Amino acid sequence: MNDQKFKPIPVKYDRVYYGADYNPDQWPEEIWPEDMRLMQAAGVNLVSLGIFSWAKIEPRPEHYEWAWLDRIMNLLAENGIGVNLATATASPPPWMAKLDIDTLPVNQAGARLWPGARQQFCPSSPTFRLLAQRLVRQIATRYRHHPALKMWHVGNEYGCHISECYSDTSARAFREWLKKRYDCSLDAMNQAWGTSFWSQAYSDWDEINPPRLAPTFCNPTQQLDWKRFSSDALLECFEMEARILREITPDVPITTNFMGLFKPLDYWKWAAQEDIISNDAYPDPSDPASPMDAAMACDMMRSLGNCKPWILMEQTPSQVNWRNVNALKRPGQMRLWNYQALGRGANGLMYFQWRASKAGAEKYHGGMVPHIGTENSRVWNEVAGLGQELKRIEPALLNSTVRPKIGILFDWESWWALELDSKPSSEVTMLSQLKAYYAPLYQNNLAIEFVPPWADLSQFKVVLVPNLYLIRDEDDLSPRLEKFVSEGGRLVMSFFSGITDQNEHIRLGGYPAPFRKLLGLRVAEFQPYVDGQHNNLRLLEAGQDLAAEKAETAYSCNLWNDLIDLEGAEVLASYTQDFMEGQAALTRHQFGQGFSYYLGTQPEAGLMERLLLQVCHEAGVSAPLQANVPAGVELVRRENEQGSFLFILNHNPAMVQVDLSGLNEYQLLLGDAGELPQDSLKLDGFGLAILSL
Ligand code: GAL
Questions:
Q1: Distances in Å between the alpha carbon of 419 and those of 39, 412, 414, 423, 431?
Q2: pLDDT (tens digit, 9 = 90+) per residue, 179-210?
Q3: Is-catalytic flag, 164?
Q4: Of 40, 206, 573, 653, which sees the most CB atoms within 10 A?
Q5: Model pTM greater than 0.90?
Q6: 484 lines ligand 1 (CB under 6 A)
Q7: How far is the CA of 36 from the centre of ligand 1 (A)?
């Protein structure tokens, strides 16, 4: 299902982009020169301009006010600051709803969502599409030769507030989308949706609706197709703008800002239409899991672009305004998290926003220039200090990336299907299962790449498959996984994978039907556990390598127990309790030159860690430093033809010492610790170092 429709512009970077969303239209023009002076002082070289400026650019239909935008574009160019120019379509002006009320979105309960906030558009509304295209054409034509123009920022965070619109307009568009998917065959659609169940058969396309509020569970394939359609409807809006931009400025790269592992949009499909992948990241400074979650989002962005550099398009310099309680980033933490993104392949570090707003719903959101101004401001000193620091180190880092040997299969459609209603357990959710794999790898500094199920796997030594529930025929995954393992690869797969096909119909013949041969087993039944319920695991002889220090039954498991019939696999661990006592829980199967491991349950974190470390060890995959690294210290390596750069990031508020004795030769590109003691490095709390290897 590779959806690459165009050839992306190969973007070569000569800078690390540094800057912010810039909303000069919220401020009197008298302060713009001051903005320019401060931007220079902070090393700002790129701003995202005009994201929410539709009403200012086009205050009445087809009446354009360019003078202010011309002036600020010129001012930025004069000051050597590039512009990531928005198409301004993210928040339609109030006049659009007055002109056509059906441009407004409708929620699942049938309520219309009104202007007064932002993003109030129905993606399928012909009026919205027409007016958005008209605006984009105007903006692109006006600024196509402008020296400040560096890239296009299409829309903003598509789907952030409204990812599904249930209006009649959307219903009509959904029917058209279904006709395309099912080749205009209502029979094929009825088959795919399994409508012989509960008297759901459709005899006319017009009978079909979005999965609006219904007495009980809506048809699962209807829900799945609806999710596909909703992601596609927004993607069409993006593509419709991108087409105009490509026609008018074929050499200017295009991006739209993603939101990490955002469920409603199939970012594999979206990423295939972008020149530059960019992301907005707002990890909660009060959550100890934030560094890992942020790392995972960085890895996803790099993976979406096939390891090419990506841009951290938004982050707060200090705090956000939209949580119940909005913690500050601690001194040093903002800088550290920027280097985390850089270490994981970013080539741009941007904030929301330049100047903290005086009015509006985001006035308590941090800005590079805070309400108190820049004098004696910690936030300002940190952001400006980082901007200057980047100038010193960027030449070394440009156009390098991370090249992991571990791949994690991840698929949006499978995520949607896994979390539809009426499953054996609604406690099995995609992100928690993904994190069960990601956490031990992150803690042990083993780099991963996310890959879609259709991707080439040849660059990996280990492939991990956390709960890949839905398997499409067209991806041809099982023969490709068999090839990967038979040629010496290591595969680890979790329970409730390979269960349904693209229509969310069960793949019959024993679970997980597509992978039975590869795994050497059949799952006959599932026994999910409620929260708090657990079983224990006994390690058998073949699983002794996984034993914790002393006991062979030291590990517990919870959430889910597969009842496994062996068909060639050997048992590493078995259940010790309940009616499945003595039966296989964790298995390994030699397949050609390689091995496939299967987890029929969710083991406690300690066993998950031992298993993944063991598998990586067998496959010859290791962390960048062999020595023990203190907990909370993250290592990641960027490389290019010239060499590699090891980022050592201390997420602890306290100082740590890192043993570098495993490294042959290195130079300190950046470090907080002053003198570099023999083969060891001291890092302050939230401090970091970059070694050139
Ligand atoms: C993002 C959005 C920005 C701003 C920011 C605040 O979701 O793109 O416009 O609202 O959040 O954190």
A1: 45, 11, 9, 8, 10
A2: 999 999 999 999 999 999 999 999 999 999 99
A3: no
A4: 573
A5: yes
A6: no
A7: 23
